[in-house]
Amino acid sequence: MELINKTIELVKQKLEGTESGHDWFHIERVWKLSLKIQEKEGGDKLIIELAALLHDIADPKFHNGDETLASKIVNDFLTEQNVDSEVIQKVIFIIENMSFKNRNDAPENLPLELKIVQDADRLDAIGAIGIARTFNFGGYKNNLMYHPDIEPKLNQTKEEYKKSNGTTINHFYEKLLLLKDLLNTKTAREIAEHRHQFMLQFLDEFYKEWNVTF
């Protein structure tokens, strides 16, 4: 418990002032979702908790695209806390391989712990909070909310996804609506059903209001 508390302190410190879709409260939700999934699906609880808490400690999109910084911070911190080296490597493996943009590069036969944390992170990207986070980040990047002449770019490569400055509505089709079918665990898929439908209802309402149709 002391290790978890110290990890929480580190995360709150590192993410202070971060864009609110990727702040401590996002981490807290992913952590809690991970624990709920772990209760049903199993897996090493310590590894799951540490990976959930540390998964966005240095998100590359807020650090000039640096995909090595998070692993260095995690390794240094957990080593200082005298965490077993095997546990540290498993946590780092999860952090390095769980993101949506890296899904095509991830190894096969991923460990259950990664699947659980990945599912929790993806669940927080859909539903009501997912909608709010998407529009918040779109505003942060000064992207258009919607443009009827700009089509979604499907099946983007990792580099295309990283450089994308499309509309916020297009992001639903480029990522959010895909997540339900990319979930790993039965528990997460059950949670996702309502959140996915809520996004579809939102989009339906959005287009009606945009087009002033009743």
UniProtKB/TrEMBL annotation:
Q: Which InterPro entries match?
A: HD/PDEase_dom, HD_domain
Show the SUPFAM superfamilies listed in the entry. HD-domain/PDEase-like (SSF109604)
Taxonomic superkingdom: Bacteria
Organism name:
Epilithonimonas hungarica
SMART domains associated with the record = HDc (SM00471)
> Taking every annotated instance into account, which residue ranges of this chain make up the domain HD/PDEase?
19-135
Task: Please state what the protein is called.
Answer: HD/PDEase domain-containing protein
